[in-house]
Amino acid sequence: MDDIAFLITEEYMDTDRDGNIMRKRTPHRVFCDVKSVTRTEFYDAATHDLKPDLNITISHRIDYNGEKLLVYDGQVYDVIRSYWDGDQVDLTVQARIGETLQRDGYLVMPDGCRLEMPDDNTLLISY
Q1: Which of 27, 88, 98, 107 is least surrounded, with the fewest CB atoms within 10 Å of its CB?
Q2: How many domains does the chain have?
Q3: pLDDT for the residue 100
């Protein structure tokens, strides 16, 4: 496993005084391999209005706990499919529109949540 991705766990905490839902996003780093999706998989998914971009294989199944968000190479992805193969987990992911990695190391989500990636490659959360 040569690549690093970040799985993001989302917890719904409470609502603020304006009634907006407050979420806590907790990222954790995993080792992985990244491959493109096959042509067949791409066109089959298109019939269900999905656009898979990558297949990501996580080395240990204990690292994956059903997370629906993943960050790889500065891009945020939705997990649209997971497949368990022995001790590994294969995730098919689709790029999210609107989330960007800023030059100063912040990943800005559409809801204004800001994930910071400092020098040690961990993500910190701030609002």
Answers
A1: 98
A2: 1
A3: 55
